[in-house]
Amino acid sequence: MSEFSLLDPFQYLSLPLGEWVESILNYLVQNFRGFFRAIRWPIDQVLDVSETILQTIPPMIGILLSSLLGWQLAGRKMGVFCAITLFFLGLIGVWSESMTTLSLVLTSLFFCVVFGIPLGILSARSDRIERTVRPVLDAMQTLPAFVYLVPVVMLFGIGNVPGVLVTIVFALPPLVRLTNLGIRQVPEDKIEAARAFGCTPKQMLYKVQLPLATPTIMAGVNQTLMLSLSMVVIASMISVGGLGQMVLRGIGRLDMGLATVGGVGLVLLAIFLDRLTQAIGERSSSENPLHWYETGPVGFFVRRYRSMHSK
Amino acid sequence: MEDSTDILSIRNVYKVFGDDPDTAMKMLDKGASKDEIFEKTGQTVGVFDASFTVKKGEIFVIMGLSGSGKSTMVRLLNRLIEPTSGTIELKGKNITALGDEDLLDVRRKEMSMVFQSFALMPHMSVIENSAFGLEISGVEKKERDKRALEALEQVGLGEHAASYPHQLSGGMQQRVGLARALTNDPTILLMDEAFSALDPLIRYEMQGELIRLQKEQERTIVFISHDLDEAIRIGDRIAIMEGGRVIQIGTPKEIMSNPENEYVETFFKGVDVSKFLMAQDIASQNIGLVIDRQTSVVPATFTNQTFAYLLDDKKKLQGILPLSEHDRSANISALLSKQIMQYKSVYDDAMVKSIVNIVAEAPYPVPVVKKDGTFCGVISKDLLLQTLSHG
């Protein structure tokens, strides 16, 4: 090669980033295996419980329960809608796969909520935390999933648990962001009024900020669910089961039928979850004068019970 | 309110907004002006050397245009904004020196605030909103609901307890805001332009409501307003602020009759004096012939008078006598034997505004009497016109 040139110094200067990462990773794998195994444990537990429950409930009972849930949370129409979507899932023969995917998604949602909402609250309270957290969230959202699939496999192995882990990485950011935004958007005059009546910071959070931020936080939950669902397909590359696996197999074998069935299953599941969480979000923002126990199937039975007793 | 005592005293309070208040304070000590400080340090002086006292049971109005520092002033009182220097004492307790816990206690028990924007919690029902202060103080639900309902009934919203704020009109929402403040049963009620966001009719109604509540329970109220008519209507005393300074404090009448400077004067220009002057303020003793039985003094000449006002020995008004041409030469006993005529009188504390019709319709200058009938003077049409044209 020619001698050093200022115009193109990169012939000589280079930062061996790839090598570094590789050696760090090797070091971690060799010395901290136990630690990463320990991280698997809670995810394993939650996943186990949710999958066992979802898989053991017979489809018709499952449909009935979820439509009752839809009715309770968002009205009669939603109940009917839930029943139809899930019934269709069963019809195209992907009930079991759907339940696996659903348990994966719910597990990752669980951990996203556990970590994301407190993180969002913290970053809403301190600008410094927000400044630190934000680039990390950016990286989590923009880093192509394939990049961290390999290290995750090296550290955690393959299967559903690491699948949930990569899903959490991908789906966590919107919940943190929207929790942060929701709390920061609480009108200044409400905050001032709460202060004027002697709220401690804790009372402020629980009595004013969180209730007023609920619709935005619910939008975050909704986004997290949707991202989780889209991640499930990619995660199937590290041997995660469910609908994503179907799609991946279909593509691998050029079996369009199989891929389509898996894809449609995912879409149906997505619609079901999206509508349900959106409806919850709207409900929390609409200042419904009725209490939760006065609406839906519970309200129906409560009214029955009351009218029986008033006679 | 002569026998009332000071409940809140504010002494030499300053508030400098910005990141470097110390430099600004030093400049202030050297006598720098607000503009100078802003130019040199970028610090804004919000309140400049404010000192005043609020008496127990009065409505103390702080008035000024936007940017005069009045909203800052009221927030300094419960330390929603920390004063840069100076002391604020509530019942002899120095608020400015309180620690966090004690400050929360003051906000929970001593001072409640009503906001211009209502600032009700949209996720709480009317009664929950009203009970908010008690909830924060940790009062039991049963007890706080009872007290909240009482407060709501005071402001006439008892039936709307289960509604949500967005279901109510603006005026009703502010009644909830008022009830929320009253539920705490505070020593001092801070009202920050509480009625400014309401339309004129509702505002007038709410002012009336406040006056009525004040008559019932004699609370101390610090009321912020930019509306002079409002200040005059509800205020026992008014403090006028301009550019962060308190420039004059007094009753509406005092300020009106003796404005401190041009700013105050222009403020009061065009004010309808009939709204706050009372009949006794303008009644004159020099109109008409006053015949006082006790002293039996009869003015030697009464050539220009057409009516005589007859007082008994306790200076109470007995009647009005019309004087005809030849009565002027008649003696006093002849006058006294004349038939007194039908007449109307007005009470001394009647607002001038409310007696205009009576004065205009009566053929005689209308006598002003105290509640027990004691004669205070008379108001003629000329006098009334002169009064109304003032300002």
3D architecture notes:
The complex is a heterodimer of chains A (311) and B (391). Chain A is built from 13 helices and no strands. Chain A is an all-alpha fold and 311 residues long. Chain A has one domain (18-56, 92-283): MetI-like (MetI-like fold, Orthogonal Bundle), CATH 1.10.3720. With 391 residues, chain B is an alpha/beta fold. In chain B, helix 15 links the parallel strand 14 and strand 15. The longest helix of chain B has 18 residues, at 200-217. The two termini of chain B are 27 Å apart. The mean pLDDT of chain B is 84. Chain A binds chain B through residues 187, 189-190, 192-200, 203, 207-208, 211-212, 214, 287, 289, and chain B through 78, 80, 104-108, 111-113, 115, 117, 119-123, 125, 132-133, 135-137, 162-164, 166-167, 180, 184, 190.
Task: Itemize the secondary structure elements and their pairings.
The complex is a heterodimer of chains A (311) and B (391).
Chain A: H1 17-31, H2 33-56, H3 59-74, H4 76-91, H5 95-125, H6 127-142, H7 145-156, H8 160-184, H9 188-196, H10 201-235, H11 243-252, H12 256-285, H13 296-310
Helix pairs in contact in A: 2-5, 2-8, 3-4, 3-13, 4-12, 5-6, 5-8, 5-10, 6-8, 7-8, 8-10, 10-11, 10-12, 11-12
Chain B: E1 6-17, H1 21-29, H2 34-41, E2 44-55, E3 59-63, H3 70-77, E4 85-90, E5 93-94, H4 100-110, E6 111-114, H5 126-130, H6 132-136, H7 141-154, H8 170-183, E7 188-192, H9 200-217, E8 220-225, H10 228-234, E9 237-242, E10 245-250, H11 252-257, H12 262-268, H13 279-282, E11 289-292, E12 307-311, E13 317-322, H14 332-336, E14 346-347, H15 352-361, E15 366-369, E16 375-379, H16 381-389
Parallel strand pairs in B: 3-8, 3-9, 6-7, 7-8, 11-12, 14-15
Antiparallel strand pairs in B: 1-2, 1-4, 4-5, 9-10, 12-13, 15-16
Helix pairs in contact in B: 7-8
Family (chain A): Belongs to the binding-protein-dependent transport system permease family.
Main location (chain A): membrane
Transmembrane segments (chain A): 78-96, 102-124, 145-172, 225-244, 256-273
